[in-house]
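User: Can you model how FE2/S2 (inorganic) cluster sits in this protein?
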Amino acid sequence: MTFMDKFFAKRSAATFRPSRRQFLAGTAAVGAGLTIGFPASGQAPAAAVPNPFAGYVRIGTDNVVTVMSAHMDMGQGVYNGIATLVAEELGADWSTIRVDGASGNLALYGNAAWGGTAQGTGGSTAMSSSWERYRRAGAIARTMLVSAAAKAWNVPASEIAVSKGTLFHAASGRGATFGAFADAAAKEPVPQNVALKSPAEWTLIGKQGQRRYDSAPKTNGTHDFTIDLRFPGMLIATVEHPPVFGGKVASVDATAAKAVPGVVDVVTIPTGVAVLARDTWAAIKGREALQIVWDETSAEKRGTAELRAEYLAALDVPGTHVADTTGDAQAALGRAVKTIEATYEFPYLAHAALEPLNAVVRRQGDIIEVYGGHQIPDLYQALAARAAGTTPDKISMRIMKTGGGFGRRAVGDGDVVIEAVEIAKAIGFRAPVKLQWTRETDMAGGRYRPMYMHKVKIGIDAQGRLAGWHHRIVGQSILSGTPFAGMIQNGIDVTSVEGVAHTVYAIPDRRVELTSTQVGVPVLWWRSVGHTHTAYAMETAIDEVAAATGKDPVALRRELLAGKPKHLGVLELVARQAKWNEKPAEGIYRGVAVHESFGTTVGMVAEIRMTSATEFKVERVVAAVDCGVAINPDQVRAQIEGAVGFGLGSVLRERLTLEGGKVVETNYDQYRPLRIDEMPKVEVHIVASNAPPTGIGEPGVPLIGPAVANAYAAATGKRIRALPFETGVTQGV
Amino acid sequence: MQMQLDVNGRKIAVDAPPDMPLLWVLRDQLGMTGTKFGCGMAQCGACTIHLDGQPVRACQTPVETAVGAKIATIEGITDKIATAIRASWVKLDVPQCGYCQSGQIMSAVALLRENPKPSDEDIDAAMQGNLCRCATYQRIRAAIHDAAKSLA
Ligand code: FES
Ligand code: FES
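Assistant: Here's the modeled complex, given as structure tokens:
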């Protein structure tokens, strides 16, 4: 069993049995106030399991309500969303809400959408995992506050009203703020059954005017990111990695680096060479002065051009695995009177979050504190303990908010976090260490959205119906070789084929094949994972079918989505809002796409204007989304707006190229995300729903590429099948 | 090298190599961490500050060239325009992660000082050096218009 296997085996078998003593220790640690927790509904009957106290909400004697979040906030707004759930049921005053990241208790923080087996933020699950759990936490806390007040005032609990952080008893005219009863409430028995509000009673959930609690500190420079942490005596570290993936340090001459004023130390760690200095500039200058001989014998030396040739060859032979076989694609293709054949190319993509990766480590007594954007905190804790040569209970995980993430802070080996521990260990933990990757370290640091290629053959019969869909995908597995490899089923990495295999479209005869390639470039999930490429292939291919059969693209989708009310609802809403049935304005061309990911269905219509024979501007995007209940409707809109900009930048010109195994685009001058001048107007329409919430951080991303490509085809008759567009346009067919 | 800087109206003595970018003097020496690091090569705008009222990239400003100039950072701009910009940013919930927003606000304040009623095109031209990886651009545009209106 590998370390990872053991870690996860232990996790899944773990049961949580807190004692009264642990609970008291927990409340003592946070100072006076109330700490409360419980399992997600349906997980464990009250009689069988002691109340799993500690960790969801803390009410200070100063009336501040601190929500302890199981999920990490990288800008997607989960802290705000979870705070909304608690505040709604608690009856809290929104202006007193704070949120902290929490970890170290699987029973409380295990991701409910993953069966509670690990704490983590990913797959756009934060709100679905939190929906029951945090509303219930708010309701239980309110009930305990009320019983404490009822005892103190000697009145029936049923006569006490709660509103905006205050308890009232009308008949006696008594009232108090939450803080006054925080201590007493913590000692009340924990109610096993609490009723949650019905949607009609909501005052925060689903409300249009509701604002984020954390916007103000983001406008005056006080929102604290990992990069902003400062401790007395702290050293700043930069790191030099091998220039090619799989390289190793052969020898280091640190003389010149150590001569740079401000440089304190140079240490070799398993992943490279680190320079420690009194400030960041010295650490950067010191790194430039390093003389390192690398051992590249087992390194990946292929470039993307070589990989492309290999992938193209792999597309010509049957895939090694079959991910979906329904009906008989081969026979159906035999009946076809017309076929569409297309090859799609998708480059490596970097997350390129604006805060370059970092982590801070300091020893306090016998505890090692590890600060960072811990997307999988318990795993990182175990990895940090192993790296530091100690036990997990000696590692204190401090979860920071980050300047973006997009999947990059959820890494199976904990990269930058563990690297920071290694560096601190190399200097004997004698000073706090902030490891700050530069933009170049970040961009060349691997963990990319894998490069993929698809080859599609679609048949159309004499009646204009689909007659066979054959789809082959070639690319690296994201899950293979990670702690998540257990999710690979029968050799199929679902993240390589999601969105194509088992499509919702009524395609009776289909076959989806997969060949997972072996390449030494580390890969990772990138906002919306497999859907980043599968939705592009599917939605542009469907558009080609519409063109080949003379059908309207919306009408064809309507036909193929018959019996799928959620998809149809979104399709109809976006078509109506975009006035699809009317002729577009002079010079405007439109494209449509519909796709489901992370339980959420999104439809988009992109409107473009050609500015030359091959160039265009995306002027407007109309989106419709069904994500179940929209907890914060304005944040749902914000996520779709952001997803449009993020996704549009990626299809227009983002690509990560390797030459001889080395990364070419190491900063924003060559790797070019969207800027403001290319941001279209985005209009978001939300399907009204009281169904439990589904994902919203990712599902908007996959749509914009195909919607724009389909608009481009409407304008020019040309299909863009290679991304980014600046490549694909020249190869247009 | 010993230097005296004028940061947000305060005279501050610093001791730094003359080529150290002002960004790191502000962040590491003065503890003013509101100004962010994103690229280190004038590509992202996260480090935008004002030097004698002009928006500049602190990562490309050697500290010695800032001696004698009035330096303003996100922590220090509190004039009417900055106040209006902040209010509109909060009103429209512009930030997602927030990391780029110090730089966005510094650029937006400089724009409104020059041009109290900018068009979308003016905004795009003035703000295109400021990357937002969360792509909050639509709200940035809207908030600048909103602030301009509130100041009119
Ligand atoms: S850090 Fe200065 S422009 Fe990016
Ligand atoms: S808000 Fe995240 S980079 Fe702009």
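A couple of observations from the model: Residues B 37-40, 42-47, 57, 59 surround FE2/S2 (inorganic) cluster (ligand 1) (CB under 6 Å). Helices of chain B lie at 22-29, 80-91, 101-114, 120-127, 137-151.
User: Helpful, thanks.
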